[in-house]
Design goal:
- With 128 residues, this protein is an alpha/beta fold.
- It has five helices and five strands; from the N terminus they run βαβαβαβαβα.
- Strands 2-1-3-4-5 form a five-stranded parallel sheet, with helices on both faces.
- It is globular and about 35 Å long.
- Helix content is 45%, strand content 18%.
């Protein structure tokens, strides 16, 4: 097996970032970076080139859809997973159209994250 996935978590909630980090650590991911808004997420994504990005949709300053567009332009191979408690069909459709890899509903479960990480590793489509 290749190197572990490096992950970026972008959510304006400290609590959600903390919970997601703990879950990802159980999945034996590599480096985990955090951003509290879309602007920071874009900067970190360009700097760190993470394999997997969890992106909240509804955030101040720059929402997840805008950040997704910029990240995919810079790194088309990044697997961006949109996460939202306000998961409307419009958000989901727009995110997938803009290049999101997948979509998960909050609250995020350990099982959902584990399945997602395993799926990406099995595909072998990230540069590991």
């Amino acid at each position: 097996m290749g190197k572990p996935l490096n992950v970026l978590i972008c959510d304006d909630s400290v609590l959600i970032r903390k919970k997601l980090r703990g879950t990802l650590e159980k999945c034996k991911c590599g480096d985990i970076f955090e951003a509290e808004n879309g602007i920071l997420a874009v900067e970190l994504a360009k700097e760190k080139n993470p394999d997997l990005i969890f992106m909240d949709i509804v955030m101040p300053e720059k929402d997840g859809i805008e950040a997704l567009e910029e990240i995919i332009t810079h790194n088309p191979d990044a697997k961006v997973v949109m996460a939202s408690s306000a998961g409307t069909k419009e958000h989901l459709k727009k995110a997938i159209e803009k290049g999101a890899y997948d979509f998960i509903q909050k609250p995020i479960s350990l099982e959902a994250i584990t399945n997602l990480v395993e799926k990406i590793l099995k595909e072998g489509s990230v540069n590991v």
